[in-house]
Design a protein that fits this description.
The chain has 451 residues and is an all-alpha fold. It has four domains: 46 residues, no CATH class; 102 residues, no CATH class; 95 residues, Recoverin, domain 1 (Orthogonal Bundle); 144 residues, EF-hand (Recoverin, domain 1). Helices cover 61% and strands 2% of the residues. The chain has 24 helices and four strands. It starts with a helix and ends with a helix. It is found in: Cytoplasm; Nucleus. InterPro entries: EF-hand-dom_pair, EF_Hand_1_Ca_BS, PPP2R3C. Its main location: cytoplasm. One of its GO terms (biological process) is B cell homeostasis.
Length: 451
């Protein structure tokens, strides 16, 4: 390179011209030459370029913990911004007025009980509804809601529900953002806990909960959000993901004072469900120390989980002096009760991957299935051949590599739940082995009901 040659030439000339110069003068000359050559090599300073000043600033460093004034200023500015956004949303009176205008300008003929409106009348409503409603009256939204009406109209009810849903989403986003301490669009576990704790008094279905149970209820509710929306365990969830999933709908469904009993039992966030999960935990905790040992967890469900699998649970999951706390137990329960879901399969895959190779091979399958065979012997049953089970698993999953099953292979196969049950639970394996008999019995029962 030219600059390397220049430095060599300089060093050669320097040897001839060092007489009578101090060490400081020599270093100053060296720095001057180096700076000149470095500047030439790097090119012109970008800050002097005209385009550099035209690029808007897009990164603002968060204030440090010791910079109290900047932190307060940032919090105040965010609060003002969220208040302004909240005022831009339609309130109840404005929504009622919108419904009145839609009803007034509906386009005949009426189809059944559903009133319709065409694009011309749609625009008439837009002019009368006011500035806040303007974003909803676009050709794009009209086209999205257009179905098979022969007159090219949309349902007034569908449009109004669309507006209501949008307003609710914006209100909820603003409400969640108030708990976003960092202001980065994420909620940490403590942020979401505060949100749900303050939400409890607004949910009539939770009126019967004792205040002493609130902390356990909040923990139960928050774990579902983090188990499914933070599978990589980053410790935070995007507000956008919270809004996109159905969990918040399930939680706010508890505002319905007449929610049916079956809907409550199937809703993870309901009082009966939370009490069921916590009650199970207390029943398993035989020594009443507030934690679960491996022997205590072995009684979970039908009590047929293999010892090898339980060993892996306590090796890989967070424990305290070899025992499991309620939060870790909740992750376990969510995985066990949702084995079809990718997040649950990821949870189990980490436990099944005993060699930490990011895939399951014949060794890993055999490692777990031997425990199933041992349980079968202890129950007086003839053990099933591992070779047969191994072939069935690979046939079900059909992995890209015929010798290795990755997590993605397991998810793509749609048989992940079955594979997991075969390897960790004798009852799950028995159900799979006798699936044809059980199916025939179910069909027979259905036929009896029909008669």
């Amino acid at each position: 390179m030219d600059w390397v040659k220049s430095l060599k030439d300089y060093n050669a000339a320097k040897q001839k011209d060092t007489v009578g110069k101090t060490e400081e003068e020599k270093k100053a000359e060296e720095m001057e030459v180096f700076t000149k050559l470095y500047t030439e090599m790097k090119g012109p300073d970008k800050k002097q370029d005209k385009t550099f000043s035209a690029i808007p600033r897009f990164y603002y460093k968060l204030p440090g913990e010791d910079d109290v004034l900047l932190q307060k200023l940032r919090e105040e500015s965010r609060a003002v911004f969220l208040q302004r956004r909240s005022r831009e949303l339609l309130d109840n009176e404005e929504l009622q007025n919108l419904w009145f205008l839609l009803d007034k300008h509906h386009t005949p003929p009426v189809v059944g009980e559903d009133q319709m409106i065409n694009y011309d009348d749609f625009l008439k409503v837009a002019t009368e509804a006011g500035a806040k409603c303007k974003p909803f009256f676009t050709a794009t939204i009209f086209a999205k809601l257009l179905q098979n009406d022969p007159y090219g109209r949309i349902s007034i009810m569908h449009f109004f529900n669309y507006v209501m849903r949008k307003v609710w989403l914006h209100q909820t986003r603003i409400g969640l953002s108030l708990y976003d301490v960092a202001g980065q669009g994420f909620l940490k576990e403590a942020d979401l806990e505060n949100y749900i704790l303050e939400l409890i008094p607004t949910l009539p279905q939770l009126d019967g909960l004792e205040k002493s149970f609130y902390s356990f209820y909040v923990c139960t509710a928050v774990r579902k959000f983090f188990f499914f929306l933070d599978p990589m365990r980053t410790g935070k969830i995007r507000i956008q993901d919270i809004l996109a999933c159905s969990f918040l709908d399930d939680l706010l469904e508890l505002r319905d004072e007449e929610l049916p009993k079956d809907a409550q039992e199937s809703n993870w966030f309901s009082a009966p469900s939370a009490l069921r999960v916590y009650g199970q935990y207390l029943n398993l905790d035989k020594d009443h120390n507030g934690m679960l040992s491996k022997a205590e967890l072995a009684r979970y469900g039908t009590g047929t989980l293999t010892e090898v699998f339980l060993d892996r649970v306590f090796q890989e999951c967070l424990t305290y002096d070899g025992e499991m706390d309620y939060k870790t137990y909740l992750d376990f329960v969510l995985a066990m009760e949702n084995r079809k879901e990718p997040q649950a399969q990821q949870y189990f895959f980490r436990l099944l991957d005993v060699q930490s190779r990011s895939y399951l091979n014949v060794f890993a399958l055999n490692f777990f299935f031997r425990a199933i065979q041992e349980q079968m012997r202890s129950h007086g049953q003839e053990p099933v051949s591992f070779a047969d089970v191994k072939d069935e698993i690979f046939d079900m999953v059909k992995p890209a590599d015929p010798l290795h099953i990755t997590l993605q292979d397991l998810i793509n196969s749609n048989h992940g739940e079955t594979v997991i049950s075969i390897l960790i639970d004798l009852n799950g394996f028995w159900t799979y082995e006798n699936r044809e008999v059980l199916m025939a019995e179910n069909n027979s029962q259905d036929d009896d009901h029909d008669i």
